[in-house]
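Researcher: Structure for this, please.
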Amino acid sequence: MFDTTNLLFDISETNSRHTFYGNGNNKATSSRIDYIWTSHFLALQLNNQKLYRPNDIKTDHLMILNQFFTQEIVGLKQLAKLQQQRRWKMIYAYDEMTDEDLVDI
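Model: Predicted structure, token format:
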């Protein structure tokens, strides 16, 4: 498993990516206690990450928003669905077939 923040940012004292701010944004109690872990495959699809302070939720945590490239993720989902349904697509190259091949079809 991979920590998405460590993959995208060089975490240091000057770039801590704090997600928790206790007691009215007191820097002394700020820390990074929220993580999103991902698999190797999704780590390769990771594009961006933002920290977001929601206005409509009362919290002392920031939301971690990860953005992924979806092209391969969606493609694998469609393939998995076809495999679960045991549906396969057969492609015939009619130009390369002999008369015997056509009889077998």
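Researcher: Any notable elements?
Model: The beta strands are 2-3, 37-38, 46-52, 63-68. DSSP finds four helices and four strands in the chain.
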